């Protein structure tokens, strides 16, 4: 019977590479991107995940932002515009055979979580008001 050898930590190589790409891109966005159209707004951006295709040709980079919706569109445009620079810099930092094309995808989960939390707080407050009557 064949046994699978691995690190024992449950992480595939692609997961480790995706995490490394996320960390490096976060650093590049914070400290090295000089695009004045979006640089001030990047302090409000968090990279939440990176998904790689099996051949590492493409990477979906999920991000969230606490900026207003108008700024989110500017951020999306700026990230798309900066993808070539970010990919080149990533190639200098991450040792993989093929540096993936970067595709930035807005992740609404943090905003949705904040919205749901607010609704829960309002419901609890409303329930408390009803009990006090």
Protein described:
Helix 2 (69-93) links the parallel strand 2 and strand 3 (101-106). This protein is an alpha+beta fold and 133 residues long. The chain is elongated. The longest helix is centred in the middle third of the chain and has 25 residues, at 69-93. Helices cover 51% and strands 17% of the residues. Strands 1-2-3 form a 3-stranded mixed sheet, sandwiched between helices. Helix 1 (13-31) crosses helix 2.
What attributes does this structure have?
3 strands; three-stranded mixed β-sheet; alpha+beta; 17% strand; disordered N terminus; 133 residues; 3 helices
Strand order of the largest sheet: 1-2-3
Count the E strands: 3
Strand content: 15-25%
Structural class: alpha+beta
Helix content: 40-55%
Major beta sheet summary: 3 strands, mixed
Distance between the termini: 69 Å
| Global Rg | 20 Å
């Amino acid at each position: 019977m064949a046994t699978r050898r691995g690190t024992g930590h449950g992480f595939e190589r692609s997961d480790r590479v995706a995490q490394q790409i996320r960390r490096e891109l976060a650093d590049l966005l914070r400290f090295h991107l000089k695009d004045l159209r979006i640089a001030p707004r990047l302090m409000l951006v968090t990279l939440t995940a990176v998904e790689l295709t099996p051949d590492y040709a493409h990477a979906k980079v999920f991000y969230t932002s606490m900026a207003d919706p108008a700024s989110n569109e500017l951020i999306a445009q700026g990230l798309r515009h900066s993808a070539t620079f970010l990919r080149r810099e990533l190639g200098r930092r991450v040792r993989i055979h093929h540096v993936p094309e970067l595709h930035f995808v807005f992740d609404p989960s943090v905003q949705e979580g904040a919205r749901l939390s607010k609704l829960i707080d309002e419901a609890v407050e409303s329930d408390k008001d009803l009990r006090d009557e």
